[in-house]
Amino acid sequence: MKFIVGSKNPTKVNAVSSIFPDNEVIGIEVPSQVSSQPFSDEETLEGAVNRAKQCAKVENNSAGIGLEGGVMYVGDRLYLCNWGALVTPTGTIYTASGARVLLPKEMEKPLKQGIELGVIMDQYANKTGVSKKEGAIGIFTNNQLTRQEMFAQVVTLLKGQWEYWQNK
Ligand SMILES: O=P(O)(O)OP(=O)(O)OP(=O)(O)OC[C@H]1O[C@@H](n2cnc3c(O)ncnc32)[C@H](O)[C@@H]1O
Ligand SMILES: [Mg+2]
To answer: Most CB within 10 Å of its CB: which of 6, 72, 125, 128?
Structure first.
């Protein structure tokens, strides 16, 4: 069976390949149909599900996977949040969330103005393409958890739920 991932971001596609090493995995661009910078758990999850649903429709006997990054308030502080969705060839949807990490207070203003976290992170870290490499989570954990590793854990949660529920 083939896995179609709703992104060309290598952290996402490689995360899926690492968890399904014996399957063909491809990344295609699909619209998340939410803001380019989701601002809540709900919106981030919706983006992941929208991506996964579109991917699952592309080919017969393929599963769609959507992985989405966003930000969310916990109390009055903004955290990075992450969600994933898997749509099986028969249309069952599994969802799971990923690790969260606190963002610096100073990022709140530009995020509210609509600047994407990827852009803000590059400026903050004085690097290019942070969102395609270690990610915000890598920067703020001193590279102890990279964006790809975090998404790989989300994909593990999706795979495990699929295995658990399909025989119930
Ligand atoms: O091509 P796609 O799949 O859209 O990949 P993306 O990097 O834009 O990722 P998302 O749309 O899922 O994330 C929404 C926004 O948040 C940014 N973002 C999310 N998580 C991030 C992280 O860990 N590091 C840097 N930017 C991140 C990302 O760059 C986007 O601007
Ligand atoms: Mg994006």
So the answer is: 6
| Global confidence as pTM | 0.97
Assess whether the C-beta atom of 135 lies below 6 angstroms from ligand 1. Answer: yes
Under the banding of pLDDT at 50, 70 and 90, the label for residue 168 is confident
Q: What ligand has the least distance to the C-alpha of 117?
A: 1
Domain boundaries, the chain: 2-166
The C-alpha angle with vertex 38 and arms to 37 and 44, in degrees rounded to 5, equals: 135
Token couple for 41: 């758990």
The CATH topology of domain 2-166 is Maf protein (3.90.950)
In the numeric block, the tokens 């399957």 are attached to 23
In the reported structure, the alpha carbon of residue 73 is separated from the centroid of ligand 1 by a whole-number distance in angstroms of 17
